[in-house]
Amino acid sequence: MNSPYNVAVFVGSLRKESLNLKVAKALIALAPESLKLTIVPIGELPLYSEDLEAELPASVSTFRDAVRGVDALLFVTPEYNRSLPGVLKNAIDVGSRPYGKSIWDKKPGAVVSASPSPMGGFGANHHLRQCMVFLNVPVMQQPEAYIGGVNKLLDADAGFVPATRTFFEQYLQAFSAWIERTAVR
Fold this sequence. Notes:
The chain is α/β, with parallel strands linked by helices.
């Protein structure tokens, strides 16, 4: 087998007991051998301003270097006000600058939106996809992952209940195939 694809995982919630963080960790535990998923923290990034480029904070350099070296991107996010959380949008902006040096360019991506509500973060999922179009990130189209009622889909060990586990095993296999087709290695 070839070496696994290195996948940066971005969690759109900073809460310590975030359901989306639990989903990300459960996905890491389920990942097939073809994928190595690693959470890249975004909570310490300063709000993006072009002034940052003059004297780059260490957190920005560390973040950009971590993402620059991966093969693919996985976004796991809640929905805030029918859109993506500000912390995630900020990370996207920090990584897209300076102009012409985006860390996102040509990296295959996938989006999982999860929420206790029945809609499963549909708005966040689609707004994030819109951002990725401009950033030249080919996002996996199928299967889609809008996980409603996520608070009832995690078991006591912070894994997925059986039907959800099966869905995500298939999802991650599809993501691996998507990366294989679209990655620039």
